[in-house]
Predict the structure.
Amino acid sequence: MKFAEVETFRALMRGGSTRKAALLLNVTQPAVSQSLKRLEHQADVVLFRRVGGRLVPTPEAHALLTEVDRVFIG
């Protein structure tokens, strides 16, 4: 798990969409999507459900965000 992927995950959770996460990180939307796919694959967990073209965070994503925020804040 790379720091950039965790940072992308956090931006996506905070921004609520890949578009907003891309703007926050100054990258493209496809870069956000690819980073998220790598993170999910490496962690072997589904973090978002794809519903009607939108990403909906799973309970696992919310739990991960709690831990990620502790690292970023601490």
Remarks:
- The first strand starts at residue 48 and ends at 51.
- The mean pLDDT is 94.
- The CA atoms of residues 19 and 29 lie 6 Å apart.
